[in-house]
């Protein structure tokens, strides 16, 4: 529920309640006042009649006098309500009446009861007008509230909406703080200030983290290169080559250094991709079909040794992609390595490249776990594997970098893994 | 063969110099951009090995200078940066080859050999090693005068060994050389065995027995003399 809807509801509820109460009070008040007026009028008539009688004048004849009744039967005294038939309108009309006893002028004459009446039709009309006017005012007021809220939501809440849009579209990787404008409304200004500060701090932290990663990556490669070169030199010592055990130890150390360096390069590449550090100016038209051919040729010894059959075809026209040549190469390399790595000996790899997609499918045992997690970093099928498990993550990042979509599917029947890269 | 090695990291520089001198090269060194710049302007080299990240300048500027001077020297770029773009830039500028740190010394030897071979068209062009005679331009190999037929990979492998005589080459280095890249897919190095086995068998058939020795658990070595 919108904040405005909520406030409008409360407002309407309160207004309606107050209005009903006010209407009741007003009705009762008017009713009382009007009746009081009628009663006063009747009392005046009573006095008038009594004075006339006291002066010895005759009472008006009920047949001609309006709203006056005479009776020699005792009647209950005082005010009361009654309904009388209006001879003209032919309907029952509410009246207020006052009955009093006329003091006989002489002892001879019998006591007489006189009733004076007053129609209440006019007072009801007045009430109807009052309540009607009140109803119209209520309707206008409610309509006004709704209209005002509409206007509020369009004008007053605009800065809030803008802030929301800015927040939704915020991407830390653009390395920019939010930069929300100052609003004339205090609450919104404070909100924007707080958000601006938050995003500035985020950008600062992110930037320092990025710098650290970059420096760490750069600074680590050199010592690694030294370790590797020194170990290799050490391996050349004649004494060492005679000592199988020692040579193995050194060889293992060298292998470890190489793994670390490879891991490092992969992570650096991922970081650079995430930081958008490949300038668009470096993107060139890439002949993916040719790159694919080169990559496959390089992998031939590996395929041969594992007895894996690789079949590939390029449907013309090949895709016309503009991307960083190194990244295109890395994408193919990682996908192909993946297809070979998770294969079994004597298996198959099928590669198909068209103008719209690249599809690489390979045989291999079913993989446990959630397929969407295969693209996560350090995801390994075999924990003992020396591979860091970054290949698919790199492939995914390269795809995301150029707006390609990469999907994974597994067909149970053939035990086949399929990776498909859809070019934009 | 006279080389200039431009590398600011002392430990690495010393190791490289050692290794290159063992390979029979005359090596001069420059630790800074300024030194390197002075040397390439003053002297002639057969090949210049340039590290791209120098404390006082960009190694690519050395490459530019060499090209602007019309130098005949080969250029091998060594980069600690995660290659990708520098690689492309370096080759565009006229570097002949690149190696991303960390690299195998044996790979450096092989690249250097190939580079120098490509650059020098005068003089003798064959490689002689014990009973082997190789004509790289023709891709022909002879054992005691008899031609030896090798597959492309086997030939490639032989040249790699010939560039590193007497050196222990690790399995990883051989695998990387063969597959052209850092091969993390090859958790096992099965595929080297196949090629090594075939190459050895062919050499053995022609009487060049025991040239390539296995150093168990580590790698291989091209024996400079008969072990028996």
UniProtKB/TrEMBL annotation, chain A:
InterPro entries per the UniProt record, alphabetical: HATPase_C_sf, HATPase_dom, His_kinase_dom, HisK_dim/P_dom, HisK_dim/P_sf, TCS_sensor_his_kinase
PANTHER family reported in the protein's UniProt record: SENSOR HISTIDINE KINASE TRCS (PTHR45436:SF5), SENSOR HISTIDINE KINASE YKOH (PTHR45436)
MF GO annotations: kinase activity
Transmembrane among keywords: yes
UniProt keyword terms in alphabetical order: Kinase, Membrane, Phosphoprotein, Transferase, Transmembrane, Transmembrane helix
Superkingdom, taxonomy of origin: Bacteria
Positions of the Histidine kinase domain: 215-424
Enzyme class name: transferase
CDD domains (UniProt xref): HisKA
Catalytic activity: ATP + protein L-histidine = ADP + protein N-phospho-L-histidine
EC numbers on record: 2.7.13.3
Alphabetical list of PROSITE patterns matching this protein: HIS_KIN
Name this protein carries in UniProt: histidine kinase
From TrEMBL, chain B:
Keyword Repressor: no
Domain OmpR/PhoB-type positions: 124-224
Record-linked PROSITE patterns: OMPR_PHOB, RESPONSE_REGULATORY
DNA-binding region per UniProt: 124-224
Modified residues (4-aspartylphosphate): 51
SUPFAM superfamilies: CheY-like (SSF52172)
Domain of life of the source: Bacteria
Pfam families the UniProt entry points to: Response_reg, Trans_reg_C
InterPro entries listed in its UniProt record: CheY-like_superfamily (IPR011006), OmpR/PhoB-type_DNA-bd (IPR001867), Sig_transdc_resp-reg_receiver (IPR001789), WalR-like (IPR039420), WH-like_DNA-bd_sf (IPR036388)
Matches recorded under PANTHER family: REGULATOR OF RPOS
Protein name: Response regulator transcription factor
Organism listed in the record: Hymenobacter guriensis
């Amino acid at each position: 529920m919108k904040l405005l809807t909520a406030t409008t509801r409360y407002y309407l509820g309160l207004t309606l309640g107050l209005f009903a109460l006010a209407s009741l009070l007003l009705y009762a008040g008017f009713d009382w006042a009007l009746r009081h007026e009628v009663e006063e009028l009747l009392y005046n008539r009573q006095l008038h009649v009594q004075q006339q009688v006291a002066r010895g004048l005759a009472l008006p004849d009920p047949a001609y006098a309006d709203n006056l009744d005479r009776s020699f039967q005792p009647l209950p005294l005082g005010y009361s309500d009654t309904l009388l038939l209006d001879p003209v309108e032919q309907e029952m009309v509410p009246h207020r009446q006052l009955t009093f006893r006329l003091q006989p002028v002489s002892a001879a004459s019998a006591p007489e009861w006189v009733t004076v009446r007053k129609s209440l039709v006019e007072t009801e009309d007045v009430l109807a007008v009052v309540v009607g006017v009140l109803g119209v005012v209520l309707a206008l007021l409610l309509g006004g509230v709704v209209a005002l809220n509409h206007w509020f939501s369009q004008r007053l809440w605009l800065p809030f909406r803008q802030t929301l849009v800015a927040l939704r579209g915020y991407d830390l990787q653009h390395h920019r703080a939010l930069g929300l404008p100052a609003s004339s409304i205090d609450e919104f200004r404070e909100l924007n200030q707080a958000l601006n500060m938050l995003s500035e701090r985020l950008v600062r932290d992110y930037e320092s983290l990025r710098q650290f990663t970059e420096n760490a990556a750069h600074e680590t490669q050199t010592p690694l290169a030294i370790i590797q070169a020194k170990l290799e030199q050490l391996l050349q010592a004649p004494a060492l080559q005679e000592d199988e055990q020692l040579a193995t130890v050194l060889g293992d150390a060298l292998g470890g250094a190489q793994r670390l360096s490879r891991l490092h390069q992969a992570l650096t590449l991922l970081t650079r991709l995430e930081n958008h550090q490949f300038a668009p100016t470096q993107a060139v038209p890439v002949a993916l079909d040719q790159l694919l051919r080169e990559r496959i040729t390089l992998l031939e010894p590996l395929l041969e040794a594992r007895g894996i059959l690789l079949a590939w075809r390029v449907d013309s026209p090949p895709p016309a992609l503009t991307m960083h040549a190194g990244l295109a190469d890395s994408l193919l390399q990682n996908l192909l390595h993946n297809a070979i790595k998770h294969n079994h000996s004597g298996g198959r790899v099928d590669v198909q490249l068209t103008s719209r997609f690249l599809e690489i499918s390979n045989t291999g045992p079913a993989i446990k776990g959630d397929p969407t997690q295969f693209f996560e970093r350090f995801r390994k099928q075999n924990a003992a594997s020396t591979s860091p498990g970054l290949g698919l993550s790199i492939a995914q990042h390269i795809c995301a970098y150029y707006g390609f979509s990469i999907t994974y599917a597994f067909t149970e029947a053939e035990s086949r893994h399929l990776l498909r890269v859809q070019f934009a | 063969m006279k080389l200039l090695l431009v590398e600011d990291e002392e430990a690495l520089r010393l190791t490289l110099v050692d290794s290159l001198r063992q390979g029979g090269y005359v090596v001069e060194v420059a630790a800074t951009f300024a030194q390197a710049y002075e040397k390439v302007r003053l002297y002639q080299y057969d090949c210049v090995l340039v590290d791209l990240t120098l404390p006082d300048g960009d190694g690519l500027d050395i490459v530019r200078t060499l090209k602007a001077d019309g130098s005949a020297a080969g250029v091998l770029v060594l980069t600690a940066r995660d290659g990708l773009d520098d690689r492309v830039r370096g080759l565009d500028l006229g570097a002949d080859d690149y190696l991303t740190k960390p690299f195998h010394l044996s790979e450096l030897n092989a690249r250097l050999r190939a580079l120098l071979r490509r650059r020098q068209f005068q003089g003798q062009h064959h490689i002689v090693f014990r009973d082997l005679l190789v004509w790289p331009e023709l891709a022909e190999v002879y054992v005691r005068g008899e031609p030896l037929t090798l597959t492309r990979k086997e030939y490639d492998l032989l040249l790699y060994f010939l560039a590193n005589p007497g050196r222990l080459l690790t399995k990883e280095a051989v695998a990387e050389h063969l597959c052209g890249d850092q091969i993390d897919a090859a958790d096992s190095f099965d595929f080297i065995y196949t090629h090594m086995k075939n190459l050895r068998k062919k050499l053995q058939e022609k009487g060049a027995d025991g040239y390539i020795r296995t150093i168990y658990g580590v790698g291989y070595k091209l024996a400079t003399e008969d072990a028996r």
